[in-house]
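Record type: monomer structure entry
Structure origin: computed from sequence
Chain ID: A
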Amino acid sequence: MPIRNGEGTGRFGRQLGVWLGAGLLALMSSADLACAQTLTILNKNVTSTSTVGFNLLNLGTSTTSGFKSSSTLTTGAGGGLPTPSGTEITKIVFAGSNNFPSGVYAGSTSGVAALPISIPGTSNLLNYLVAEGSSSNVGTVTISYSVPQTGLQILWGTIGAGDTLTVCSNTTCTGTAFATYTGSNLINSYGAVANQNAAITIKGLPGFSTIQMSDHNNNPAFEFLVGQPVPEPAGMAALGLGLAGLAVARRRAKKLVQKIPGTPIA
């Protein structure tokens, strides 16, 4: 059947609308997925490295309990951070009380920090990070990443009401944060257990390059270890599919235009 004047153009317009609508829907859906913040507790009572559920940043081990160091950790030779494992974490800075400083600890120190995790089948003690405050000082551990992150994995040790995790919107962790989670929030809203160790995954965050763990009341300290960077969320993959869909729609539209009699080729 011959195409009447204007019929082909109308059919083309309807088909193009369907293609573009599908592509835009994929883009909108992917944006929603990427922006939805979710916190999941993988294990409410972690006791060993075999039950965490993700790979932890390796800070080494020790054969004796106690405080190890409050020196800034960096990547590279002698910096204290592992290479190449965990290279997206570039710096860890400690601040807090002089009597019981924030820093790297191993094992348990009475009245200061409690070992959050053990290594099965060995007597070695896993080194971990501690934010230790006092009545007059807020203890903090600030972690910087080399590239923006959208997710975070953390072994949150002996959860206490005074523990605070801040996902910072800038490198100095000032102003309005992207997200803030407290020990009380985990216990009351997510079902975590006070003074137990929880393996936690947070996804769907705006791109951040700094996080800060803090202890405000010195009772108890905030003991923790962070996991390796979280893989990109499914929303980012959907975003890529949406863009690909728009590209396919554009190519098909161009071919259809070329088939309509009397239509100039772009």
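Annotation 1: The two ends are 26 Å apart (CA to CA).
Annotation 2: Confidence is low (pLDDT under 50) at residues 18-34, 233-243.
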